[in-house]
């Protein structure tokens, strides 16, 4: 937890401002900086997470149009790869979890993608 605050303080003012604009599913008593991290992090190693501002804007679908993978070989970046042909105007989605019932607890919403029952 301390590392999240430490890394946040190392960001430029502009980067901190962009970070603070991300959605935060806040648990009671949780600091906003930590809530943003927990809501928007992507796994980059076994137990480490990272924030990628553009990818954090992608919405969830249980059967997504794209997949995110972390690449450290060339440069530290998150690679978004289409899983299917994507039509012009189609929303690019990723899956936040393989267990949809965890979405309300972890992200604060229920999935309403075409694959989920109403």
UniProtKB/TrEMBL annotation:
Residues 1-97 form the SET domain. CDD domains: SET_SMYD. InterPro entries: SET_dom, SET_dom_sf, SET_domain_protein. SUPFAM superfamilies: SET domain. It comes from the Eukaryota. This is SET domain-containing protein. It comes from Oidiodendron maius (strain Zn). PANTHER family: SET DOMAIN-CONTAINING PROTEIN 5.
């Amino acid at each position: 937890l301390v590392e999240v605050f430490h890394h946040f303080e190392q960001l430029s003012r502009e980067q901190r401002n962009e970070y603070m604009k991300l959605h935060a599913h806040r648990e009671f008593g949780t600091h906003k900086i930590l809530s943003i991290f927990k809501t928007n992090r992507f796994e980059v190693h076994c137990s480490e997470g990272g924030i990628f501002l553009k990818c954090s804007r992608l919405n969830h679908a249980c059967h997504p149009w794209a997949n995110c993978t972390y690449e450290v070989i060339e440069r530290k970046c998150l690679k978004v790869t289409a899983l299917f042909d994507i039509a012009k105007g189609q929303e690019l989605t990723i899956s936040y979890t393989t267990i949809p019932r965890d979405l309300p607890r972890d992200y604060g919403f229920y999935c309403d993608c075409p694959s989920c029952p109403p």
